[in-house]
Amino acid sequence: MLHLVNKSPSDRASLGSCLRLAAKGSAILLIEDGVYAAISAADSAALIISRLDDYKFYVLKEDLEVRGLSEKPLIDGIAIVDYTGFVDLAATNDSVQSWL
Amino acid sequence: MEVEFETEGVKKKFLFVNRKAPYGTIYALEILEMVLISAAFEQHAVIAFIDDGVFQIQKGHNPKAIGMKHFAPTFGVIEMEKEDADEDEDIDMVWRIVVEKESLEARGLTADDLAIDVDVLSSADLSALMNEQDVVLSA
């Protein structure tokens, strides 16, 4: 299953809820304001770092660029994908859940 | 040009995830509409309440003062749909209404605070249930 998180972890609990309920082995893609969760120096980074073994994490390149985060150090272990990669993830997973 | 959709015999397992409190935004009502539409097409459905979504099924709402639709009667319809699905052998439709225990506890609620009859599931059990569904619609 592919989980989409599009809210900043310092604004909403969406990422926390996703990490509580997503089955192990799921793919989690950070998009829109969700990309802020990938910043390695942020307080919220521990949320993801502690679960790197449980999930495959991805962050959307275009949404990083929009927010000026392209050069910002991100958490090791999060893969950067572009829109084409997003489509591949959506196509290869059985279902998609958006944590709006 | 008229477009025809072939829906005969198409049967999927739908999961509706309610994560928002009932009156502050329109999300909760939108999900309800989708749930009822899925019933019209006799689809299987799990209706899950997690995070602030648990407040949607809390007892004692009184939204008259703000001119909003009262939720409880609509959830009564959902309970009736579920009973029909359970009892009528001609309807091939399995429905479950579930709520996450951890979300209730985090908000100081128990199953006694809820207006409808639901299955209370742990995060782990709900996680497994989510993973079995064909289509997930969330708000």
Mean pLDDT of chain B equals 89
Query: What is the C-alpha radius of gyration of chain B, as a whole number of Å?
Result: 16 Å
Instruction: Give a count of the beta strands of chain B, DSSP E runs of length 2 or more.
Output: 5
Structural class of chain A: alpha/beta
What does this entry look like structurally?
- The complex is a heterodimer of chains A (100) and B (139).
- Chain A has a single domain (2-99), classed as 3-Layer(aba) Sandwich (Hypothetical Protein Ychn, Chain: A), CATH 3.40.1260.10.
- Chain A is 29% helix and 21% strand.
- Chain A is built from four helices and five strands; from the N terminus they run βαβαβαβαβ.
- In chain A, strands 4-3-2-1-5 form a five-stranded parallel β-sheet.
- The radius of gyration of chain A is 12 Å and the shape is globular.
- The mean pLDDT of chain A is 96.
- Chain B has a single domain, classed as Hypothetical Protein Ychn, Chain: A (3-Layer(aba) Sandwich).
- Chain B contains four helices and five strands; from the N terminus they run βαβαβαβαβ.
- The mean pLDDT of chain B is 89.
Spell out the key features of this protein.
heterodimer, A: 100 residues, alpha/beta, Hypothetical Protein Ychn, Chain: A, five-stranded parallel sheet, 5 strands, B: 139 residues, 4 helices, 33% helix, globular
Brief summary:
The complex is a heterodimer of chains A (100) and B (139). With 100 residues, chain A is α/β, with parallel strands linked by helices. Chain A has helices spanning 14-21, 45-49, 61-66, 83-92; strands spanning 2-5, 27-30, 56-60, 78-81, 96-99.
